[in-house]
Amino acid sequence: MRDYRLQQIDKLDTVEIYRESELTADQVVEIGADHIAVATGATWRRDGFGANALSGIAKLGPVAALFTPDDIMTGRLPEGPTIVYDDDHYYMGTVIAELLRSKGVDVTLMTPADVISSWGAYTTDRGRAQTRLMEMDVDLKVAQSLVSFDGSRAVSACTYTGRESETEATAIVLVTTRLPNDALYHQLQSIQLKSADTTFKSIRKIGDCDAPAIIAAAVFSGHRYARELEEEIDTD
After folding, report:
1. Which residues neighbour 67 within 8 Å (Cβ) at sequence distance 6 or greater?
2. I need a labelling partner for 35 at 20 to 30 A (CA). Which of 43, 131, 146, 186 fits?
3. Which pLDDT tens digit goes with each residue over 53-74?
């Protein structure tokens, strides 16, 4: 998806891309754009907050043994027996479990749901994902909600009975929820409200910066922003 869109953008003379150019709010204003779309993405949480832990998971540590999908994607990988705790229920948990197992790591995929990748049933991913993990000898634990982790063992509780059990592990990858990286958006919004001299006509957050979701939602968000830009919207 990314490569295709970059290929299409490269064909245009009206688009410029500046990589590795993180901007402050003041620097964004200095550019003098008429409209600003903030698409700064989201970051995976490492506190256990998710659909089955709305207050987070209090007993998680040590920090060095906690990982998120962001860590995995930047090359920070656990080495010992690892639990991938999936409270996201789509493809990310299974993808990370497969990656780690391919690196020779002993992996347990744990989820509070009755099946792994439950949302993947809507995209026909679930069956293939589970088959692949079983072929790779990934240990699958379903209907188990993570209670605590101390760096050597994890305590989980049955989603239905609350009965607790232990799993030995030296690391845990928390695949739960994401937080929007929207600080820049709020800073620009504050500048717009406080100053009548700002040159930009509009500012809007799009994609995961607005609401973390699946890739298709992020693509749609950008497409919709472009289609609606400077258009009169009929609200009747």
Report:
1. 46, 76, 77, 78, 82, 171, 172, 173, 174
2. 43
3. 999 999 998 999 999 999 999 9
